[in-house]
Write a structure and sequence with these properties.
Largest sheet: 8 strands, mixed
Low-confidence stretches: 1-20, 22-47
Shape: globular
Number of helices: 13
Helix content: 10-25%
Distance between the termini: 25 Å
Strand order of the largest sheet: 28-29-31-30-32-33-34-35
Structural class: alpha+beta
Mean pLDDT: 91
Length: 689
C-alpha cells in the first residue's frame, strides 16, 4: 500500500514502481505446503483478553535500526510528536535512554549514516505528497538534543531520491530526481556542504534501477520498455550502451555490480527460466551463467549476502516461509549457531556483513511480535542485541498465524497466511485481506507489512483473517505473475480471493454469512471489486486508498511515472486504446455501484498522488445518492496510507467498529476518548459530498 520507504539505502525505481499500488516488503523456517488448515482446539466462545490498539501499534516500536559506519552511534526511527522521528544512542551505552534528534510532525521516511562522522542523511515528504526532500543532520556529540538539521533540496514539486554517497568524496551525494523536467528522472550530484545540485547524467533510456560507480556515477542500470521487457545498460564513454534486453514479462533485477571485473550479479527469470535465479553477467562478453536457483524450484530468489570478495555466501528464497542456503561450511555453521540461540519459531535474515569488523547484522522475525535486530560475531560466536525491547502487548494474546495453501477452482495452488483467534477455529466471522501492489506479496513475520498487526488485531477480536498471495503476486515465478494480466476485478486474481473464502467455509472455519473484505491500494480495489462483482460473498467491505476506476487511476499517475508503465499497460490496459479502455471500464467498480449489497467504508488520504481522493469521492457520491450504508474516513494530512499515529489509531478503531457492527465480531469496550474524538474529525459528512 505504502510507498517504498527505502530509497536512501538502495534506490530501485523498480521497487517503487512495483509498489505504486502496494506496500510494499525478508526473513529460516520450512514452507508449509499442507493443504489442511493449521490444527486448533475447538472452543465455543472467545475468551482472549483484548489487545488494545495503542499497545499493538505502539509508539515505542523501533524501525530501521542502523549503526554508524564508525560504530559510534545507533540510530532508528520511532514515533515522536505523532510521526516517525530519528533517535540516536551511543553504541557503547545501549542501556542509556535514546535521544530524539528530530522533532518533526511529518514522518522521516528513511535515512542512512553518512561516511562523514556524526552525520545522518534522511528523506521525508510533506504530508504524504511523495515529493521527498533530502536533509542533513549534524549530531552534537555533547548534547544530541541540539543537533542541527539542514535541508539540502528545496523544490517541493520534485521527488529527490538519494542513491548513495560517492566512495571517493563523501561530500558528494548521488541523487535521482525529476528536477529538470517532470517527465524524466535524471542523475545529480548534491553537495553535503552547500546543497548545490549538479546535473551529471541524463536518463535518456528511462532507467528505473541503477548501480553506482566509485566516483558516484550511475554506472549500470535497468530500463523498463513499453512492451514490458527490460533492458540493461552500461554507462561507458559518456553514453548508455545496451548490454541485453529480456523478452516481455521477464524479470531482471540488479543485485550487485563489480566495477573492476565488469561483472554483475542479477536476479532473473530470463531465457526460459520461470523462477528468478541468481545469475552472473559478464558485461563485456554479455555472457550469463546461473550461480544458484531454488533447490525446491518453487520460489524466486529473495535475498543474497556476499563475502569479502563479492561472491555469494548465503542465498535465500521465500515461499510460505524463508529458506536460507549457505554456500560455505563456515556460513552454515554460523547460521546454525545463531538459530540455536532461539527456542521460538523464527525467520533469520542476514541483512549484510561488515567484513572489516567481522560483524553480521541480522533481523530475527516472529509471527507474534516485532522484529529484533542483532549483531553477530562469528569468530567469537557472540550475539549482541541492538536495542531490542519486549513489546507493549502480551504475544500470548495474539492469534495463531501460519502459512497455508489452497487450490483455486481452476487447479492453481495459492499460498496464503491464515491468522486465527487463540483456541478458536470453527464458524468464525472472517476477513479477507488482499495485499496491495499487486506486484508485491504478504509474508509471515509480524513486521513484514502494515497489515500483519492488523490481522492479529482482528484475530484477537474473534475473526479468522486470510491474506492470500493471489495470482500476480511476486515471489512465485514469472508465470504466476503473468496469470494476473488483464485479470483484475472480474478475472482469476479476484477468483483466487473467492476461492479462499470457499476453502475456509469448506473447512468449517468461516461462517458463510459473516465474511468481509478489506484491503489497501490494489487491495482496496479488490475490496470494491468484491463488493460489485461478487456481491453475495461479502457482508461488509472496507476500501483503504483503493481506486474505484481503472481509467482515472491510469490517467492520474504523476508525469515521471509514465515512462515506467509498461507493466501496467500489459496487466491493466492502456486507456488510449479503445479495446483496452472498454475492458478497463468493465472492471471498474464505479460503473457497477448498483450491484453493491454490502455496507461500505472508504478510507482515504487527501494528498495521495497515486490513488487520488477522486477515487473515493466518486464512489461515495454514487452510494450516498442511493442512501446506501456508507462510512467515509478522510485524513487531510495523509497520502497513500496513514503514517501519523492519531490517524492510524483512529482508522483502525473505525474499521473494528464497522466490522463488529456488520459481521458480529467482538469490539473494544474501552477506547481512549482522544482516539474517539479524533476519529470524529476524520468522518466525512455524506450530505456535503
Amino acid at each position: 500500500m505504502m510507498k517504498n520507504k527505502n530509497k536512501l539505502t538502495r534506490l530501485t525505481l523498480s521497487a517503487a514502481l512495483s509498489a505504486i499500488l502496494g506496500t510494499t516488503v525478508v526473513l529460516s523456517g520450512c514452507t508449509l505446503n499442507d493443504k489442511q488448515p493449521p490444527a486448533q482446539p475447538e472452543s465455543v466462545q472467545h475468551v482472549a483478553t483484548f489487545v488494545d490498539v495503542e499497545s499493538l501499534f505502539s509508539t515505542s516500536e523501533k524501525k530501521s535500526i542502523a549503526m554508524s559506519k564508525d560504530g559510534k552511534w545507533i540510530a532508528f526511527l520511532k514515533m515522536h510528536n505523532g510521526a516517525h522521528n530519528l533517535f540516536v544512542v551511543a553504541a557503547d551505552k545501549p542501556d542509556m535512554t535514546p535521544v530524539p534528534v528530530t522533532n518533526l510532525t511529518d514522518s522521516v521516511d528513511s535515512f542512512i549514516w553518512s561516511a562523514n562522522q556524526d552525520e545522518i542523511l534522511f528523506s521525508k515528504d510533506h504530508q504524504g505528497n511523495e515529493n521527498s526532500q533530502i536533509y542533513r543532520l549534524d549530531l552534537n556529540g555533547k548534547d544530541l538534543r541540539v543537533s542541527t538539521m539542514t535541508r539540502l533540496t528545496h523544490d517541493d514539486t520534485v521527488d529527490y531520491s538519494l542513491l548513495g554517497q560517492s566512495d571517493q568524496d563523501a561530500n558528494i551525494l548521488v541523487v535521482a530526481a525529476n528536477h529538470l523536467t517532470p517527465e524524466r528522472i535524471d542523475y545529480f550530484h548534491l553537495s553535503v556542504d552547500t546543497g548545490n545540485l549538479l546535473h551529471t547524467q541524463t536518463n535518456s533510456v528511462n532507467l528505473f534501477e541503477t548501480q553506482l560507480s566509485k566516483s558516484g556515477q550511475a554506472a549500470l542500470g535497468l530500463a523498463l520498455n513499453a512492451d514490458n521487457s527490460r533492458s540493461m545498460y552500461r554507462f561507458t564513454d559518456g553514453r548508455w550502451i545496451r548490454v541485453m534486453t529480456t523478452e516481455p514479462g521477464e524479470i531482471l533485477e540488479i543485485i550487485s555490480f563489480d566495477e573492476e571485473s565488469n561483472t554483475a550479479f542479477v536476479a532473473g527469470s530470463i531465457e526460459g527460466r520461470d523462477k528468478q535465479e541468481l545469475i552472473k553477467v559478464d558485461l563485456v562478453t554479455k555472457s550469463i551463467e546461473t550461480v544458484h536457483l531454488d533447490p525446491k524450484h518453487s520460489s524466486d530468489l529473495h535475498h543474497v549476502v556476499f563475502d569479502e570478495q563479492g561472491q555469494p555466501l548465503i542465498v535465500s528464497y521465500y515461499g510460505g516461509r524463508l529458506r536460507n542456503y549457505p554456500l560455505t561450511d563456515a556460513a552454515a555453521k554460523a547460521l546454525q549457531q545463531i538459530q540455536n540461540r532461539f527456542s521460538q519459531d523464527i525467520e533469520l535474515k542476514v541483512d549484510k556483513i561488515n567484513h572489516k569488523a567481522g560483524q553480521w547484522l541480522l533481523t530475527v522475525s516472529f509471527a507474534d511480535r516485532p522484529d529484533q535486530k542483532y549483531a553477530y560475531y562469528p569468530a567469537q560466536d557472540k550475539l549482541t542485541g541492538l536495542l531490542n525491547e519486549a513489546p507493549r502487548f502480551d504475544p500470548a494474546q495474539l492469534g495463531d498465524r501460519q502459512s497455508i495453501t489452497y487450490t483455486a477452482s481452476d487447479g492453481v495452488e495459492i499460498q496464503a497466511y491464515l491468522t486465527l483467534p487463540k483456541n478458536l477455529n470453527k464458524n468464525l466471522p472472517t476477513i479477507v485481506l488482499p495485499h496491495g501492489g499487486p506486484w508485491a506479496r504478504d509474508q509471515w513475520g509480524y513486521s513484514s507489512g502494515y497489515f500483519v498487526p492488523v490481522a492479529h488485531y482482528f484475530a484477537n477480536r474473534g475473526y479468522a483473517v486470510l491474506q492470500p498471495n493471489f495470482r500476480g503476486s511476486l515471489g512465485f515465478g514469472k508465470r504466476f505473475v503473468q496469470l494476473g494480466e488483464k485479470n483484475w476485478g472480474t478475472g482469476t486474481m479476484q477468483h483466487d480471493l473467492t476461492d479462499g473464502v470457499n476453502y475456509l467455509i469448506e473447512q468449517g472455519i468461516a461462517d458463510k454469512q459473516r465474511v468481509g473484505i478489506m484491503g489497501a491500494s490494489y487491495g482496496g480495489y479488490a475490496a470494491l471489486a468484491g463488493a460489485t462483482f461478487t456481491p453475495d460473498v461479502y457482508k461488509a467491505v472496507i476500501s483503504y486508498v483503493g481506486p474505484s476506476s481503472l481509467i482515472t487511476l491510469m490517467e492520474s499517475f504523476p508525469a515521471h511515472y509514465r515512462p515506467y508503465l509498461g507493466t501496467w499497460y500489459v496487466s491493466v490496459g492502456d486507456p488510449e486504446i479503445a479495446k483496452d479502455r472498454a475492458d478497463m471500464e468493465s472492471r471498474s467498480p464505479i460503473n457497477f455501484v448498483d450491484q453493491i449489497k454490502a455496507p461500505l467504508m472508504l478510507v482515504q488520504g487527501a494528498n495521495d498522488p497515486r490513488v487520488t481522493q477522486v477515487e473515493s469521492d466518486n464512489i461515495a457520491r454514487a452510494l450516498a445518492a442511493k442512501n446506501h450504508p456508507l462510512e467515509y474516513i478522510l485524513a487531510k494530512d495523509e497520502g497513500h496510507g496513514f503514517m501519523k499515529q492519531d490517524n492510524k489509531l483512529a482508522s483502525i478503531v473505525a474499521m473494528e467498529q464497522f466490522f463488529a457492527k456488520h459481521l458480529g465480531g467482538s469490539v473494544s469496550q474501552q477506547v481512549d476518548p482522544a482516539i474517539t474524538a479524533h476519529l470524529e474529525t476524520l468522518r466525512v459528512n455524506l450530505d456535503r459530498l
